[in-house]
């Protein structure tokens, strides 16, 4: 009977090889931009009290209703693998006493999250996000600065094919009036909606504007726009945000369909879209959430944030051929023939690594020919060869893999010679 080969759970993936290089490039770029802008890194637990997300994200949202991985521990506590990053950051802000720090507190994270949803291109059940959160400042300048930081991230990644979509979701003073207006518009059209939107009409009408179903898209274009129904405070705040963004010459579009999927958003909301795919391939989004901290038991503290999808951003990087010239970590292969040469090669390999030069060897391969084939597959620039004669003479052959030229050097000079050659390329 054949042994069972275990497979990863549906909707998860292994990150290695070229994907790992894209992953690391994105992570390094994001973290550099965030730290240069004064953000501090935060890592929160992979699971939290379930009530944190039910109260924070919203009981009627798809995430809480359909997608959370929830379980009970051995003490009977209900815990949930984090489906998003903002609620845990707010919990940490309150629990860890960040209110005593100079405000605002600017935090960033690069973490994995979990949602039970249908896997598709760029969407997984375990996925990664990079996020920014600014807590403790209600100024529209903060909204604009988060948008500017997000724009800078994609510019640093050399991603060109994107657009920023901006809207306002109003506040508790003006949003209820708009929702009544929206429900009145849809009242005689509910039968034309998709199955999910028929439920949203009763539970979360704003999400009617966010549906991607063909049945619902036509009605969205005729629906009343919240931007035309803002109270004076929200109107002035949003107008000022746009004025600050205009100062930076950041291209954006006003889009009344951008409403986001969480209940905690108030005021400014925005998304980063792939230009060709539009809303079907949103790379990330965010906005202001001035009511969330109070909802989770804290004082009234204004805040604004952003979350970007790592997998979707990497797909866009590949599509636009960003990051194809990754620097090679390993550019040297050490080959040997014979037991005495093997010991010398083992020492040479470690001398190279101690000097910060990436190198590999295959000590289980006997023939030089087999080892050179491996070196060729690895795409290294140089192979260092030690046979029985070189081991006896205390020399090393340096083979240029591109030209095929070979030169002999004393063992003690090889590391310096290779270091100099790698720096000149």
CATH architecture grouping of the largest domain:
2-Layer Sandwich
Q: What is the class of the largest domain in the CATH system?
A: Alpha Beta
Distance between the termini: 54 Å
Number of H/I helices: 15
Uncertain spans, ≥5 residues at pLDDT below 50?
none
As a percent range, the share of strand residues is: 15-25%
Strand order of the biggest β-sheet: 1-5-6-11-10-9-7-8
Structural class: alpha+beta
Overall 3D form = elongated
Which fold name corresponds to the CATH topology of the largest domain? Answer: BirA Bifunctional Protein, domain 2
Helix percent reads 25-40%
Multimer state: single chain
Radius of gyration using CA atoms only: 28 Å
Mean residue pLDDT: 91
Number of domains: 2
Summarize the main sheet.
8 strands, mixed
Topology diagram in text:
Elements: H1 17-36, E1 40-41, E2 47-49, H2 50-57, H3 62-67, E3 70-72, E4 78-81, H4 86-95, E5 105-114, E6 126-135, H5 140-156, E7 162-168, H6 175-186, H7 195-203, H8 214-222, H9 232-247, E8 252-254, E9 268-274, E10 278-288, H10 292-295, E11 303-309, H11 310-319, E12 332-336, H12 339-354, E13 359-361, H13 368-378, E14 382-386, H14 388-393, E15 395-400, E16 406-410, H15 411-424
Parallel strand pairs: 1-5, 7-8, 12-13, 12-14
Antiparallel strand pairs: 2-4, 3-4, 5-6, 6-11, 7-9, 9-10, 10-11, 14-15, 15-16
Helix pairs in contact: 1-5, 1-11, 5-9
Structure description:
The protein is α+β, with helices and mostly antiparallel strands. It folds into 2 domains: 17-174 and 230-319, Bira Bifunctional Protein, Domain 2 (BirA Bifunctional Protein, domain 2, 2-Layer Sandwich), CATH 3.30.930.10; 332-424, Rossmann fold. Helices cover 40% and strands 21% of the residues. It contains 15 helices and 16 strands. It has helices at residues 17-36, 50-57, 62-67, 86-95, 140-156, 175-186, 195-203, 214-222, 232-247, 292-295, 310-319, 339-354, 368-378, 388-393, 411-424; strands spanning 40-41, 47-49, 70-72, 78-81, 105-114, 126-135, 162-168, 252-254, 268-274, 278-288, 303-309, 332-336, 359-361, 382-386, 395-400, 406-410. An 8-stranded mixed beta sheet has the order 1-5-6-11-10-9-7-8, sandwiched between helices. A hairpin with a 5-residue loop joins strand 3 (70-72) and strand 4. The chain starts with 16 loop residues before the first helix and ends with a helix.
